[in-house]
């Protein structure tokens, strides 16, 4: 199984979630948010394909990382390979963050034809930063988010309750969109 990446893995990120993290940059995004800091990741035919096994092998070599982060592009456009990667990362005791332009509510909408794949990916994610980047709500003071409408969600609690539960310890400005 292959995944299309926008760039090689970032091994030592300190801005894509708490602690030292490895970031997987998925290629392809339909959101095309104005002011996106990764516009080169939008084209679904851009980037390059990598065997999922190769990514898992890289993750197995990690020593100091707290977790992995799925970013991009839009990770939820490639759920199958990311589910496989996340399951292996979980076995290694790594926590998993994901950034998505979709909201949690969109991802768990049972009427969506991609619901089952998206839910399977969510089941392997600990924290979701959801919502499109909105340039007018951009702030460099926000921790782990680009714009104040984006939420930092405890995915496992949210799946149980079937509603978004915020990770309050990561949100310093409580003026985000409800």
UniProtKB/TrEMBL annotation:
<dbReference type="GO" id="GO:0043365">
    <property type="term" value="F:[formate-C-acetyltransferase]-activating enzyme activity"/>
</dbReference>
<keyword id="KW-0479">Metal-binding</keyword>
<keyword id="KW-0408">Iron</keyword>
<dbReference type="Pfam" id="PF13353">
    <property type="entry name" value="Fer4_12"/>
</dbReference>
<dbReference type="InterPro" id="IPR034457">
    <property type="entry name" value="Organic_radical-activating"/>
</dbReference>
<keyword id="KW-0560">Oxidoreductase</keyword>
<comment type="function">
    <text>Activation of anaerobic ribonucleoside-triphosphate reductase under anaerobic conditions by generation of an organic free radical, using S-adenosylmethionine and reduced flavodoxin as cosubstrates to produce 5'-deoxy-adenosine.</text>
</comment>
<comment type="similarity">
    <text>Belongs to the organic radical-activating enzymes family.</text>
</comment>
<keyword id="KW-0004">4Fe-4S</keyword>
<dbReference type="InterPro" id="IPR058240">
    <property type="entry name" value="rSAM_sf"/>
</dbReference>
<dbReference type="InterPro" id="IPR012837">
    <property type="entry name" value="NrdG"/>
</dbReference>
<dbReference type="InterPro" id="IPR013785">
    <property type="entry name" value="Aldolase_TIM"/>
</dbReference>
<dbReference type="GO" id="GO:0004748">
    <property type="term" value="F:ribonucleoside-diphosphate reductase activity, thioredoxin disulfide as acceptor"/>
</dbReference>
<dbReference type="GO" id="GO:0051539">
    <property type="term" value="F:4 iron, 4 sulfur cluster binding"/>
</dbReference>
<protein>
    <recommendedName>
        <fullName>Anaerobic ribonucleoside-triphosphate reductase-activating protein</fullName>
        <ecNumber>1.97.1.-</ecNumber>
    </recommendedName>
</protein>
<dbReference type="GO" id="GO:0046872">
    <property type="term" value="F:metal ion binding"/>
</dbReference>
<keyword id="KW-0411">Iron-sulfur</keyword>
<keyword id="KW-0949">S-adenosyl-L-methionine</keyword>
<dbReference type="InterPro" id="IPR007197">
    <property type="entry name" value="rSAM"/>
</dbReference>
<feature type="domain" description="Radical SAM core">
    <location>
        <begin position="15"/>
        <end position="178"/>
    </location>
</feature>
């Amino acid at each position: 199984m292959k995944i299309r990446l926008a760039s090689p893995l970032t091994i030592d990120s300190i801005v894509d979630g708490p602690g030292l993290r490895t970031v997987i940059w998925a290629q392809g995004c339909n959101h095309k948010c104005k002011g996106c800091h990764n516009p080169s990741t939008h084209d679904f035919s851009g980037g390059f394909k990598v065997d999922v096994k190769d990514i898992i092998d890289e993750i197995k070599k990690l020593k100091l990382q707290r977790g992995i982060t799925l970013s991009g592009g839009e990770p939820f456009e490639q759920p199958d390979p990311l589910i496989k990667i996340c399951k292996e990362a979980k076995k290694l005791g790594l926590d998993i963050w994901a950034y998505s332009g979709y909201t949690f509510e969109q991802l768990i909408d049972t009427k969506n034809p991609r619901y089952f794949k998206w839910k399977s990916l969510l089941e392997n994610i600990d924290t979701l930063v959801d919502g499109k980047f909105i340039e007018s709500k951009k702030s460099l003071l926000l921790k782990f988010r680009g714009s104040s409408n984006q939420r930092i969600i405890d995915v496992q609690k949210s799946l149980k309750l079937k509603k978004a539960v915020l990770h309050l310890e990561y949100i310093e400005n409580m003026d985000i969109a409800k």
